[in-house]
Design brief:
The chain is flat. The protein contains five helices and no strands. Helix content is 75%, strand content 0%. Helix 3 packs antiparallel against helix 4. It has two domains: 113 residues, no CATH class; 27 residues. The chain is an all-alpha fold. The model has no long low-confidence stretch (mean pLDDT 82).
Length: 145
């Protein structure tokens, strides 16, 4: 039940991370006047999850080449998979934080960008569809429909 309730959020998060470029995200956050205290960690996170996914696939391939299978000994598989992954997570997090600081994301001056950010017709249609679904849900739950 918990996974069922979290699924829309997970799908939305996956969609946002996979389709949005970091520079577009930073430009949008700057245009909405969001603080750098929120923007910098989120921009690091945009690069963090895809990098972890690649690292996990590399560890899986290395385990497969060495003949380590999860069916024989699940605890051994957990150790051989989680320890390298945790070490990679720490290293990647540090590298991405340093990269963000090197790019000047924490500077006080206004950054320039060439991304075209805006609210288009497709955004309006999607917003209206979501509002219509929400109204139908509220009316249905309230017993009016």
């Amino acid at each position: 039940g918990i996974i069922y309730r979290m699924m829309p959020s997970l799908i939305t998060g996956y969609f946002v991370v996979s389709t949005t470029k970091v520079s577009e995200f930073n430009a949008a956050m700057e245009r909405m006047h969001i603080s750098n205290k929120i923007t910098i960690p989120m921009s690091v996170m945009f690069r963090f999850f895809p990098t972890i996914k690649e690292e996990s696939a590399a560890i899986k391939d290395a385990m497969h080449m060495r003949g380590i299978n999860s069916l024989r000994n699940p605890m051994e598989m957990l150790e051989y998979r989680m320890v390298p992954l945790l070490m990679s997570v720490v290293k990647i997090g540090e590298e991405l934080s340093i990269s963000a600081l090197t790019r000047g994301l924490s500077g006080d001056t206004k950054r320039t960008n060439i991304c075209e950010i805006g609210f288009h017709l497709s955004d309006l249609l999607c917003f209206l569809l979501c509002i219509a679904c929400w109204i139908c849900f509220v009316l249905h739950v309230g017993g009016m429909i």
